[in-house]
Amino acid sequence: MADASADRGDGVAVVLEDVRKTFGTRDARISAVDGVGLVHEAGSVVALTGRSGSGKSTLLHLIGAIERADAGTIRVGGTVVTAARRAELAAYRRTIGFVFQRFHLLPALTARDNVMVPLVPDRRRARAAAARADELLAAVGLADRAGALPSQLSGGQQQRVAIARALVADPGLLLADEPTGNLDSSTGTQIIDLLLELNAVYGTTLMIATHDPALAARCGASIVMRDGRIAQRIEGDGG
Ligand SMILES: Nc1ncnc2c1ncn2[C@@H]1O[C@H](COP(=O)(O)OP(=O)(O)OP(=O)(O)O)[C@@H](O)[C@H]1O
Q1: pLDDT reading at 235 higher than 90
Q2: Residue 37: pLDDT above 50?
Q3: Which residues, including other chains, have CB under 8 Å from residue 102's CB and lie 6 or more apart?
Q4: 58 pocket-lining for ligand 1 (C-beta < 6 Å)
């Protein structure tokens, strides 16, 4: 990976207090997140594990302001996400990165243009944005594929582009929802290596929802979710 330590950003802390989210109607309510509290230190890495339906994705969506909590408090760095108004939320969303199981790249755009998508379009800064995209593509091992379309890349390479895109706005927090779920195990291992390396270089706080025990074991800590609650917290060696 290219040495980008000069760019090392500041990860942000994530603090949740009694966060709740239900879906459905009054007759058929599902408590997807049912009173979650946690403190996740700036620059650290945590895996969210637990069975399908235990609330991992919903929790990431609440923290990332993709969905709104019904109750409780979510603080990310200096932003109280649960109290923020629309404009503040829009600004907040630009300060976090998201990586999904399905890479969600735009098929008609090159790798470089996909990475540049989150940057506010500004003709005067187009050259700087392209340079930043190329730097991040180099950091994820794709220096020579900047001009390739997603269809010309393997699954692992597409996920690398998605990770570069998530990092382009220098987020203090990266939320990853099953980032290795669509990849074979050796490619998945490379993606884990990359995420942990990026955390070490940039200091970005990482929260990773995963069914992959190998990934969870390598994070600094694991939170096991059950029925929308935190059932257990396991401190790992982070290695
Ligand atoms: N938009 C929605 N509308 C209704 N119910 C939802 C919605 N999103 C999630 N749920 C429900 O909330 C619960 C938690 O779902 P969530 O996707 O957060 O779990 P998960 O642990 O991420 O599962 P998986 O590992 O399968 O991705 C489930 O019962 C799910 O069916």
Answers
A1: no
A2: yes
A3: 182
A4: yes
Strands (E) across the chain are located at 14-24, 29-40, 45-49, 71-76, 79-80, 96-99, 173-177, 205-209, 221-226, 229-235
User: What's the pLDDT at 9?
Assistant: 56
Range of lowest pLDDT (62-76, 125-139, 145-159): 125-139
Residue 231: pLDDT above 70?
Answer: yes
* Domain segments of the chain as ranges: 6-95+172-239, 105-170
The set of residues, in sequence order, having a beta carbon less than 8 Å from that of 74 and lying 6+ positions away, is 14, 15, 16, 19, 62, 63, 80, 81, 82
CATH of domain 6-95+172-239: 3.40.50.300
Is the CB of 23 within 6 Å of ligand 1?
yes
Helix (H, G, I), strand (E, B) or coil at 165: helix
Q: What percent of the chain has pLDDT over 90?
A: 64
Contact 30 CB / ligand 1 (< 6 Å):
yes
Number of the ligand 1 atom closest to the C-alpha atom of 228 = 14
pLDDT for the residue 99: 92
Cα angle 226, 228, 233; round to 5: 55
Among 19, 22, 30, say which to mutate for ligand 1: greatest number of ligand atoms within 8 Å of CB: 30
